[in-house]
Structure formats: structure tokens, C-alpha cells
Amino acid sequence: MENDRPTNSNFRKTPYLGNRRSLSDGVNHMLTPTGLGKLPPQAIDLEEAVLGALMIEKDALSAVIDILKPESFYKEANNRIYNAIVTLFGNAEPVDMLTVTQQLRKTGEIEVVGGGGYVTELTTRVTSAANIEYHARVIAEASIKRALITVANEIQRDAYEDTTDVFNLLDRIEQSMFKISESNIRKNYADMSTIMRQALDELEQKKNMKDGLTGVPSGFSALDRLTSGWQRSELIILAARPGMGKTAFVVSALRNAAVDFGQAVAIFSLEMSSVQLVNRLISAEAEIDSEKIKKGNLAPHEWAQLHHKIQRLTEAPIFIDDTPALSILELRAKCRRLKAQHDIQLVVIDYLQLMQGDTSGKMGGNREQEIASISRAMKNLAKELNVPVIALSQLSRAVETRGGDKKPQLSDLRESGSIEQDADMVIFLYRPEYYGISADEAGNSVSGIGEVIIAKNRSGSLDTVQLRFVGKYTKFADLDAFFMPQTPPPFSGPSAGFDAKTSGAQTFENQGGIVKSKANTLNTPGGNFTNFGHIDPNQQETPF
């Protein structure tokens, strides 16, 4: 065995092949040896045992089809034979020694695998399919180890190159590791019969759902009836002109998902700091004027109201990242970690035009191309993590200069038509009173009304939903929500010199740019406070 290592210059150009066996040796040549004088991890005897079991017991494949892929097999012949078995299964044809041999002849691979004699020999290795699942997991683990070795070799090779963009390399490393991890629980192929069974199972589950929601709920009943919630793997673009309440809407929606439905959510706030965002959450939750929250000018009963109302908010699985000028590479890395560590179900980006695209500078200063690459990357992220991604977007000034109706149109999306193309759903926010309109065509008052216009919906219908916009609390609510003013009970606790840290109201822990709320025990003097914070519908709402 020859183990002389090549020089560094040769190593950069051609990976060291060590004891690499040729295809004629029957070993998958795509899986290179380690370069350390060792063959990659393998379990050829178990590969042969599993293949033999699959050909003698017709139901054995169902136990391993989610564990093994054709590339899980180290030996090239075994790889091809397993692929033939999966093809037969997908075509609902019987799987045995004769049908597998015939399938290999049909694809011209029978001689490559060693002829019909090798297929026959496999069936003599075992007498039953006992322990086949355990054997399959051993094969899969060896395959994962080989994949890790391949990635490690690529990292070493690229890290030596002076021309390598280190941030792109980091992103590729993380993406490769994520795919390897996911491959242990998800398969990369699916036959039609498997997909059909999955679709029917999901349909049955949807039929049994009491609320009818198949996605992450927005908490707005009329909108959820129309969309069935934010759908997984979809990119939702929420667009409006400044001042329409984009952030207020999305913060209300993520609050509803996290607090009312227990769904873990993440928001990347490129425009506002985490403290500003939390202040909005507090104002909306406690129903205290946002201007008072900003100035800290609260009456004694409002301190009690705040204590009482925000307890659920402090316990909510809401993650906030306020990194400015976030790049798409950083976004992907952070979302993958949040998904792995906290199983987030919804991602919100506020807002798209403040993000940076390709850090390598390949876009050549073309902002439209950069926005296009960002929107495509967001769509890919939604599919990769299987979560809905809501990205806020600005509209062009054409809305303001257009005569007559100021309602947004798809052509108003700013900087790139690819945003519309990549999005599964495009939603516009429109508040008539922003343009001085006090009543609609029928003469009905539109004061405090916010219209949610679904202009594109790949998986549903187009419609407009009306919500209540409560400007002084910076939040949206259902139009038919009923608010009854209540007189709060007297509060005996002090307001002067109030210390939020000692009161136990709420603290926030900074975790590497991500702020996570932490619940604390609430002991407020003056007893249990209930029924606070109902707004007076007669009060004038301040525009937002």
C-alpha cells in the first residue's frame, strides 16, 4: 500500500485519493477514501444482507425506505440494486430476485453489478428480514460519516485557496452540514405512491381540524378563514407605503401566533431596535398609549395594568434579532440555528430592502439584481426550513403620484419584479384615512379601518379583509372586536421610582444578537388585577 502524501501544490489541485478503488472493483467511486491511509466507513456485509432480505420479503422495504437512499450504499453494485428495488416498489411491482434482475437488464446495469449471479447470491446471505431496520441504520450511519469526510476535505481544500470568499465558504459549510443532518430523518426521493399516501393522510388531518387552519395562524379570524393560516414553505410579501402600519400588522400577527397559539416565531428587525419592538409589543398587549410607553409617563393604574397584561408576553416563544444591514448569508445561518434549537414555525423580516445580498460583490452594484437574489434566497429558505417566511417590502412612490384610487397594485412593488415572481402570496396594506378618506362609496365610515389586500395567492383566492387599526396601541385587531371601557381598581403600589428589574415585570436576555423574553414571577401589591385596558371607541386614534 502506497501512502506517500502529495505536495501542497498537488493537494490543492487534486484531492489525495489514498486507497481509492476503481469502479471495476465494485465500489462506489464517488465516495473517495479519506487520504489518511484508510478506507471510508463502510458496512458491505450488511449492505448485502439488507438487499437479500428486501428480495425475499415483500414488506421489508417499508421498514427501511425512509432510512436508506441509493447513495447510502458504499458498494456501487449495491447502490444500483437498491435503486432498482425502489423503482419497482414505486411502480407497485413485486420485488424479488427475478424482477430485480429484469429491472437491471432493462436499465442496462446487469453486467455492471456483476451479473444475475450476484443478485442471486445476495438472496442466499439471509433467511429472513429480521433486524433489517437495525442493519439499515448502521449502513446509514456509515454513509453519514463518509459525507462528513467529503465535506471536511472540501473545507480544507477551499480554505487553503487565497481566492476563496470566507463568508460564502462558511455558508456552504453550514448548508452542507444542515443537509447531512437532515438526511438522517428525511429522504431525498419520493415515489408517487408514497406521496399520494402522504397527501391523503394530510387531507384527513385537515378534515379533523376544528379551527380549519392548516398553517401558522395570524390570529385575525377573517384573514385565517381566507388563507387557512400562513402556509409552510411559502414566501409571503407584505408591502405598503410608509405609515400604513406594516410593522404594526406583522408584530400583531407574530404576537398572536406566539402568545395565543404557542408557535415559536422569529423576527429580524433591520429598521427598529429590539427594545423599540418590545415597547410596541408591550403597548399592544397592555393597551397603553405607545407615546406613554415611549416616555415612561404612566399613571399608577397603568403600571398595574402593564404588570398584569404582559405576563403572557414574557413567556411567549418570540425571538428578536436587530442586526442592522443583515446579509442573506447571516439570515440563513441564524434561521437554521433557531430552527434546530427552538423549532421556529414562522420567520419575519422587517424589511427586505434593508438587507444585503451577495457579500462577494458579484452583483456589480445593480440593486435590482441584488433584491432579486435576496427574494429568491428567502423563498429557498422557506422551503429548506419548511416554515412560512414573511418579508416586509416598500412600495414605489408611484402610488402617491397616481390620480384617483391609491390602492396598491403589483406593479408598485419596489426595485424588482422578481419579488412578485418569487412570492407565493403578496399582501398589501391600505388605510383610506391616511389619504383623508373618511367614508367608502356606500357612505360607511372608514375611520380606523385597515384593508389587507391579497393581490397574489398561489394556493388560494384573492380577496380583501378589513381589520381594525388601533393607532395609539400600534396594533391591528379583528374588525368585530368589542372593547368595553372599564374603570380600573385603585393601585396601592408606588409609581415614582419604579424599577422594572425589581418589579419582576419583564427582563430580556441578549443571546448573540437575538433577544428572547424570559418570564419572571409577578408579585404586584394591590391584589389581582383584571379587565384592564379596554379602549374607548369614541376616543380619537392617532395615525401611525
What this model shows, in words?
This is Replicative DNA helicase. One of its GO terms (molecular function) is DNA binding. Residues 1-12 have a biased composition (Polar residues). Its EC number is 5.6.2.3. It is an enzyme of class 5 (isomerase). This protein has 544 residues and is α/β, with parallel strands linked by helices. It has two domains: 8-194, DNAb Helicase, Chain A (Orthogonal Bundle); 219-481 and 492-518, P-loop containing nucleotide triphosphate hydrolases (Rossmann fold, 3-Layer(aba) Sandwich), CATH 3.40.50. It is 41% helix and 11% strand. It has helices at 8-13, 44-56, 61-64, 76-90, 97-106, 115-123, 132-160, 166-183, 192-208, 221-227, 246-260, 274-286, 290-295, 300-309, 311-314, 328-342, 367-385, 398-401, 418-422, 500-503; strands at 235-240, 265-269, 318-321, 346-350, 389-394, 425-430, 449-457, 464-470, 475-478, 507-511, 514-518. The chain has an eleven-stranded mixed β-sheet with strand order 9-8-7-6-1-5-4-2-3-11-10, sandwiched between helices. Helix 2 runs parallel beside helix 4 (76-90). It starts with 7 loop residues before the first helix and ends in a 26-residue tail after the last strand. The model is unreliable at 1-32, 359-363 and 482-544 (pLDDT under 50).
